[in-house]
Amino acid sequence: xxxxxxWLVFLVSLVLLVFISGVFVDxxxxxxxxxxxxxxxxxxxxxxxxxxxxxxxxxxxxELSGLEARIQSARNGIVVAKxxxxxxxxDIQKREEDLAIQYHILSKRIAEQYKRTRTFSPFMTFLATQxxxxxxxxxxxxxxxxxxxxxxxxxxxxxxxxxxxxRAKLEQDQVRLAVLEKQLDEQAEFFRGEIKGAKNYQAxxxxxxxxxxxxxxxxxxxxxxxxxxxxxxVPPADxxxxxxxxxxxxxxxxxxFSFGAPHxxxxxxxGAYGRAKEGQSTEEILRAYYGxxxxxxKDYSTAVNITVDGYGTVDIETYTKRIYEVPNSWGDxxxxxxxxxxxxxxxxxxxxxxxxxxxxxxxxxxxxxxKPANKGGNWERAVNETSGWVLMAGGQPFSAWYASTSxxxxxxxxxxxxxxxxxxxxxxxxxxxxxxxxxxxxxxPWFYKGWYKSRxxxxxxxxxxxxxxxxMADIINAWVILVKHGQSDDRVTPSGSCWGGNPYSSDELxxxxxxxxxxxxxxxxxxxxxxxxxxxxxxxFQTDKGSVTINGNDFYKVFNLRAPGRVALKSxxxxxxxx
Length: 579
Hints:
Helix content is 51%, strand content 11%.
């Protein structure tokens, strides 16, 4: 009997093991942590930012840099939630398949249980059983089977209930995700529109100037100094009135000083002179201005001929000996390496020009200054010592630009697939720019200068570049009309008779600016800030109506359109002094 009871326990345990391992499937719930609620919170935050931007521009400006990232983060969250929804749908499908199997098993068990219930009689079973032990075992087995059936029924019922709950939640989350995605798209579109509008507004403030008449454009071109001048062609005059220490005889007085003139690409001749004085070699000077990636070929053919307008054809070395761009005296004052760098640049420029399809080269500063006789002296020695040296890029001679004085910052330009560097041309970089610029070391009179004369020497009756408080306020009033309010007005030209036309008087210009809500009478102070790319970023004036900040490029243009006489800016890198 003991053996029979052990056998019964073993059978019951085996049946339970089969049911537990083969029928009851434990499926995890994918949305134990629901990301949709987190997404809703992100969307709500974005909606809050949207309302802030509608109510005021400033909050949006502060959020511009982070908006796209936050929108993308929310969009990524939607993708993750969608992927989880897809996985949940797959799990629900699998659970439905598992339930189908369990339901099939349950149907059979219920049918069998129904049959047993209909045919089973404990009394008849007792009479049919030969002994009590067998009867007890049979009753225990039947009870166990019934209990397992009940457990299976309960399990399936629970799974069906959970399945319906999960399916309903999945449908709800899919609807919410669709709504959130649409809401996010609308918000993203709104923010992009706001950002675009803000950028357009900023562009209008920082770069807008009214459409110019032909006469205004001519004035701007002449005053801005859109010409090329080198040291050897037109030596800069050391004019005492153009210096910061000049006393105009009134106060407050304001003068705008340009750093360098008039173009700032390639090699600075005075900068090369300063570098030579500091012990730099020809190659170091050339690589500083034209880039470490430039090739300095030292065996270029000297048999190449150059045709010069008005002077016929000469070989490249004779041509270079007749270039009048830098003084021989530099070679006697520590600048011989600068002469050699100039010789290489002049030779390279001529070869690049003729190699690019030009049949000849001009003899003026529009190309480079040539005279029909060897210059001799240190220059000819520099040409001989660099014979065959040519700057190369892309397998061709490189167009080596140069000019007298850049003001301490060299702008980049490209030719033959090579770009020259843009950099502060000073020993200490930008931090040492005004005191350690190589052009200042070389003593360039154009490094920091107030301009008030034309190239011919005409000053339109003015003896210095200094402006009175009301004259500087007049410049600001021109800015109000042309830039701040974007009006086209061809009467905004220099006052006086030098430029002709019908320029506004100071009072007329002020009255027009006042009619726009921004008329100024006087200036009492000024400060200037610089950008890392070699330009004046902003100018801030203290006026009779408070502080006024003007974008540097806008001031550069307006100043040259309205400053009296020939007073002008020659560079986008400038300072304004007050005394």
